[in-house]
């Protein structure tokens, strides 16, 4: 079930644009691109010009709430697109990366001890990859510990 959910979300994520926020924030950038004054946006929001300016400042310093951002966007006939996008580009890649890390955490201490005792490592790269693949296949909650 989780694998199907990951595939569906990955497909959706790859279709989502995740551009960086402009230097002055989306609200101000969109407003100025539309040649709309701060007073005009404030009037549409039913707030003072200072409150509208504070919304723009709050967006830039990441303290704006989603509710306020949505309301301000609606005042400019826009809507907010909200998404979490994995840094590696897909949820599958994220799971595989964590599985590799977890396999190393599990097998490396044994390898290190064997090397200190001047013994050959009991684990090969194949076994490490096999353990990582098992983590991907089973996806236990402990994968994220």
What's the layout of helices and strands?
Layout: H1 2-14, H2 25-33, H3 38-45, H4 49-60, H5 66-75, H6 91-116, H7 125-138
Please outline what is shown here:
The chain folds into two domains: 19-75, 434 Repressor (Amino-terminal Domain); 91-144, no CATH class. Helices cover 63% and strands 0% of the residues.
* Class derived from helix and strand content: mainly alpha
Please tell me what the overall shape is.
elongated
| CATH topology call of the largest domain | 434 Repressor (Amino-terminal Domain)
- Mean of residue pLDDT? 85
DSSP strand count: 0
Number of helices: 7
Tell me the β content.
under 5%
CA distance, first residue to last residue: 21 Å
Structural description of this entry:
The protein has helices at residues 2-14, 25-33, 38-45, 49-60, 66-75, 91-116, 125-138. The mean pLDDT is 85. It has seven helices and no strands. Helix 3 packs across helix 4 (49-60). The chain folds into two domains: 19-75, 434 Repressor (Amino-terminal Domain) (Orthogonal Bundle), CATH 1.10.260; 91-144, no CATH class. With 145 residues, it is mainly α.
Give the key terms.
434 Repressor (Amino-terminal Domain), 7 helices, mainly alpha, 2 domains, 0% strand, 145 residues
